[in-house]
Amino acid sequence: MESSNAAAFDPRADDVFARIARRYDRLCDVFSLMTHRLWKARIAALMAREEGELVLDVASGTGDIPVRLLQRLRSARGLKRVLVTDISTQMLAQARRKLRGDPRAEIRELDAHALDLPDACIDVYSISFGMKICDRGRVVDEALRVLKPGGIFYCLEAARIPFEPLHQAYLAYMRWCLPFIARLATAGDASAYNYLLAGIHDFPNQRVFAAELEQHGFTEVSFKNMTLGIVAIHRGVKPS
Fold first, then answer.
1. Which domain holds residue 201?
2. 152: which residues sit within 8 A by CB, 6+ positions away?
3. What is the crossing angle of helices 178-185 and 164-176, to 10°?
4. Distance between CA atoms of 20 and 167, rounded to whole angstroms?
5. Burial group, residue 12, by CB count within 10 angstroms (0-12, 13-18, 19+)
6. Do the Cβ atoms of 160 and 229 come closer than 8 Å?
7. DSSP class per residue in 64-129
8. What is the pLDDT of residue 2?
9. Does some domain include residue 128?
10. For the chain, what is the domain count?
11. pLDDT for the residue 77
12. Domain of 165: which CATH number?
């Protein structure tokens, strides 16, 4: 499979997430009209049902997924630990503030493309809205490497509404309405929006991405559409 970065994002060329770290959560609310909160709650609920002790969340940003997951794990047996990772020191600073010293969370600055972790050490792996700004081939290979046999992969990402006229209407909204909103919310720094828009346009649809996961070696691959298919939650299993 030819690897690609749907958003053509290079953090070495544009340190956009350092600039917007303190505003990132507000931008997510603006871009998604608050629905990102429902999507993140859903993937956290699915992850909480999985067995195992160690969860790796990559491209964690401000820590929304780890926070939601740990809230759900308070009453769970076999309490999990969560490794919270990102390449942005500024974003992880916001995650640290949200996690408030929870002893079950470990925060580390790690690159999803080349994780400084041993083989087969992770029970559950997750990435949410980070795959579109990464070289997804390399990221998926790293996920497969660090997962234990039988370990579970989750990815929450932009998808394609199956009803094409509705999908085109959604893209039109993204093209014409959100740039204005984004410029106001970012005080003129539109980089974050530009990467978001490019990623939404060029990220593969649900079935194509599921096929990519299978090509890289995952089994039992499935996906769940959310909000008509604006986003999807993908799940795969590392063969045992």
1. 16-237
2. 47, 50, 52, 123, 124, 125, 235, 236, 237, 238
3. 40
4. 28
5. exposed
6. yes
7. HHHHHHHHHHTT-SS--EEEEEES-HHHHHHHHHHHTT-TTEEEEE-BTTB-SS-TT-EEEEEEES
8. 45
9. yes
10. 1
11. 56
12. 3.40.50.150
Does the CA dihedral 193-187-15-145 come out positive or negative? negative
Residue 178 lies in a domain: yes
Residue 235 pLDDT greater than 80, yes or no: yes
**What is the Cα 61 distance to its own chain's centre?**
9
**10 within some domain:** no
Collapsed DSSP state (helix, strand, coil) of residue 164: helix
- Does 4 reside within a domain? no
* Cβ atoms within 10 Å of 145's Cβ, excluding its own: 16
Q: Please give the model's pTM, rounded to 2 decimal places.
A: 0.93
